Structure formats: C-alpha cells, structure tokens
Amino acid sequence: MSERRDAPLMIAVGGICTTTLYRVPAVPAVPGKVLATDAAEIVDGMAVSAACAFVRLGGQAAAWGRVGDDPRGVEMCRELATAGLDVSAVRRVPEGRSSIAVSIIDARGDRLVVPYHDASLDPAADWLPLERIAKADFVHVDTRWVEGAAAALAAARSAGVPGMLDADIAPPEVLARLVPLASHAVFSDAGLVLHTGINDLEDALRSVAAGHPGHVGASCGAEGYAWIEEGAMRRAPAPRVEVVDTLAAGDVFHGALALRLAEGATIAEAARFAVVAASLKCSRFGGRLGCPSRVEVELTGG
Hints:
Elements: E1 9-13, E2 17-23, E3 38-44, H1 46-56, E4 60-68, H2 71-82, E5 85-93, E6 99-105, E7 111-116, E8 138-141, H3 146-159, E9 163-167, H4 172-178, E10 184-188, H5 189-196, H6 201-209, E11 215-219, E12 225-229, E13 232-236, H7 249-262, H8 267-282, H9 294-299
Helix pairs in contact: 1-7, 5-6, 7-8
C-alpha cells in the first residue's frame, strides 16, 4: 500500500462485481422486450464504489475483497486500479467465479438490480492484511462479505480507526452482527427499518442509538441524511436535482461522508457535503461513474 499521506486513506472491504447498466424508458410490468437508450459496464460493489468516490473527491483508497480466478477477475482488478484504488489485497479465489450483475434503470432513475454471486466463493477472511488498518484514516465495509467486514471492523476498533458500516438491506442476522462492531453505523432507510422493525425514522434511529456508543444515521434519498447527535435528531437536506440514475448514490454518500470526517469535519459539515455529492451523482447515468468532482460539490453548496 502507498505510504503517501497527503490525503486521507480509506480501506474498503466488501463485494466486487461487474455490472452492466441499461437505461430504458420503463421496466416492463410483464415479460417482453424493451430497447435500451443507453448502456455502460462498470466494476462496482457497495464499499468499492464508496472507495472510488473517496478517491474522486480527494482521498486515497484500497479495496479488499474477492474475485474469481477467471479472466473477468483480472479485468476487474485492472479497472479498479485505473480508478485509483490499491488492489493489492484483492484475492483471486481458485476455481471461483467473479460476481456479475445487471442494472436496469428507468426514466425516473429508479433501478432493478439482478446480481449473481458465486455461492462457492471462499468466505474466509484469515488472509486479510489487517495490520495495514492501523495506517488508515477510515475503514468502510458493506454487508456482502460478512466475514471480511467483521474482521476489518474488529481490527479498526482495536487500532482506534473509525469503522463505517453501509447498513443497507441484508439478512437481519448480518446487520445484528455488524452494527455493534462499527463506530459509524450508516443505514439506508430500508436497512434501518429491516434492522429495527420500526417504520418511524426518528424512533428507529433512537432505538439503535440507545444501544450504540458511536454515530448512528440513515440516508433517506431525496430527503437527505438524518442522524442522532446529543440526544436530538438532526438532518441535512438534499438539494433537488433532475434524477437520471440512483445507482451508487448511497455509495457516493458513504465515500463523501467518510472523506470529510477523515479530514476533521463535523458530522453536520460532512453530511451536507455527502448529500450534495450523492444528489449530483443522481443527475448522471453510469452508477459510480457519475460521482462529481470535489469542485462541483463545493460549488453546489457541499
């Protein structure tokens, strides 16, 4: 890993996938055929896309994860390296198949995502270079590789490094295991409901915060970001944009939030920056490729 320390360093741990995106006027309600108006192919994943945003906005990042021992896995590592990520701790699993997905995005920017993950891909995390975490400024994990996420969050806590969990929709037992390990539990609104069983946003956040000593918040799409601070629920509203593609908006939010926190910003400052970055991403087709530059975020009020 690079020893350059003029920018914050994130270690991102999670799933890695090749995703084909199709933009269509509407997702058919019945079986049939629809012609795409645009298309793209990217390498992504929740934590990986957050790391790409972290780099795009001014940080540096490493991706830790697994790909198959196949030509697609080689190309995935190459593309992430081109995006500026350190991929030296991406493992090519012998006889494994790299993950693939299709995302169909309609005219409103909403999407249907169909991923495939090889169930035989070795879940073990005992090969991770956890000693590197002590040199990082932030660790960010998703729920798609549970063993890796748990190991990285535990190592971050031991090293005194902030550890953020992207607490999106996942099996309840996975969220129950990972949320307590994170210093920053950042939910999607749907993930928060799944974890707590509570539909009211403030009540759900307070429920988690009551038993969590760190930061607890939820990204709420066009409604911005909400979190509990000093016993009160606070909010950072999102600017209004013409929505084209919501894929990876949450990941851009996580990457932007982590970057500003690593730079010493307050939660309110970091949240404002992150909701602007995520909103601008939604105005552009291409998943994580739509992440704006830092200048664009700051000019829009982030």
